[in-house]
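Same chain as my last thread, 303 residues:
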Amino acid sequence: MNAWQRFWDGDVAWSWRHSPVAIVSTVVLLVLMVASFGAPWVAPHNPFDLATLNLLDALKPPAWESGGDMVHVLGTDSQGRDMLSAIMYGMQVSLLIGLASVLLSVFLGIVLGLLAGYLGGRIDAYIMRVADVQLSFPAILIALLIDGVARAVVPREMHEIIAFPVLVFAIALAGWPQYARTVRGSTMVEKNREYVQAARVIGISSPVIMFRHVLPNVLGPVLVLATVHLATAIITEATLSFLGVGVPPTSPSLGTLIRIGNDFLFSGEWWITIFPGIALVLLVLAVNLLGDWMRDALNPRLN
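reply #2:
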């Protein structure tokens, strides 16, 4: 029996096959990810190629409304950009920022959580007090602070260049305490297990024990937390972009598209902000529902 067959016959796969919510969420998430990361090949237009834009196509309504056409199914914005294509490209930016910030948060949280839980003492106290202080502030406030400091230090002509990495770092720095606390708690339990004591007896160093032996046994809760945190990271990025401190307009995310469309909402061009908003809701909802299923499927008390 190969590895795939063992996985398909396992408890997690069985739980997924018998959960309609998990199946629908997975399908929706896969469709959105294919549409976003495959945007250069799937999207009907390149909304950011100035040579293909025509101002005469600006503010066209969706195809089913009077004045719309099938060339631009979801209409166009004030620059004549196809909304369906813009949403695909914008979702790609949102997903990239969300995934990169979650990966960085997971890395920081795992390293600091392992150190705090395994070594204990003053290191544990220092790391946890920093985490407690940071958890007392909203994540969006921390992200705004980091983004504001970066923009104040870096010259104005470099703002667009550093926008993506600064946004990833800001969101990641706001999210690491949750992983650190989770990993610390699991590590404090695992370090008293027999396999850790045996590793100490035969002279294996602490870093090797932490990252080779303890880490694989504490990753379950981290994976669940990372899935849920991905939705939070996407929402945080959309909020920052909506406030005008996110990615530049030359590579807009879903939050930027919603902010741009908000200026036209009350003049009748509702599709410019509504459709990116629906895409954002679908993306976040699919990730959240999948995270809820993973939490239940990986919880041994519920199996």
